[in-house]
Amino acid sequence: MIRILIVDNHPIVRKGLELFLNSKPDLKVVGSLSNGIEIFDFVRHHDVDVIVSEIDLPELNGITALRAIKKEKKSINVLMFSHQPEEIYAVSTIKAGASGYLNKAADVDTIEAAIRKIHNGEISLSEKMDKHLRYEDTRKSQTRLFKKLSTREVEVLKLLSIGRKNKQISQELNINEKTVSTYKARLFKKLNVNNIVDLIHQAKHHNLA
């Protein structure tokens, strides 16, 4: 039996997943939560094998919760199930400790397959992002550079690369504009550039965008 915790701020998403997953004889939804804060108390008092979580959660976002959960309960596998674009978040969430990333446009059979895959200790990504991750792992110099950047710096870099302005980035990542400027300054320093055009060029050259 695979015990699943669903974390999403939309009741219809939680209920839909619960009804579908509970229809499978070896899958059981043991909890359904609406925010990131509640996860910690739940996993301390209940046995959970897989968490299916949105990134955008009230009170505590899914990526921050993910990092904390993996420190406390390494045995729990986490599938990030989000409306956020996988091109920006998939690899970053894997590096933060997730076992898989799935866009909410996926059908129910794909969701089921992803849960079973990560429960077996594998990484679950779309074919496109899986190829991206494997390609990245073969480029040692790129990997070293990637490791210099924090998950948040990568998120900011990817958003800059698709033309987002500071205000838009602050809204999408739920941080203030001054913090975005700080991340940009760090990126300039780490990638050894002094303007946004060269920053984006470097990002694309090193397969970070």
Description of the molecule:
With 209 residues, the chain is of the alpha/beta class. It folds into two domains: 2-130, Response regulator (Rossmann fold, 3-Layer(aba) Sandwich); 139-205, Winged helix-like DNA-binding domain superfamily/Winged helix DNA-binding domain (Arc Repressor Mutant, subunit A, Orthogonal Bundle), CATH 1.10.10. It has eleven helices and five strands. It has helices at 11-22, 37-45, 62-72, 86-96, 108-119, 127-138, 140-148, 151-161, 166-173, 177-190, 196-205, and strands at residues 2-7, 27-33, 50-53, 77-82, 100-103. It has a five-stranded parallel beta sheet with strand order 2-1-3-4-5, with helices on both faces. Strand 3 (50-53), helix 3 (62-72) and strand 4 (77-82) form a beta-alpha-beta unit. Helix 4 runs antiparallel to helix 8, helix 8 (151-161) crosses helix 10 (177-190) and helix 8 packs across helix 11 (196-205). The radius of gyration is 18 Å and the shape is elongated. The N and C termini lie far apart (39 Å).
Helix content: 55-70%
Task: Please list the strands of the largest sheet in the order they lie side by side.
Answer: 2-1-3-4-5
- Which strand-content bin applies to the residues? 5-15%
When the domains are counted, the total is 2
CATH superfamily of the largest domain: Response regulator
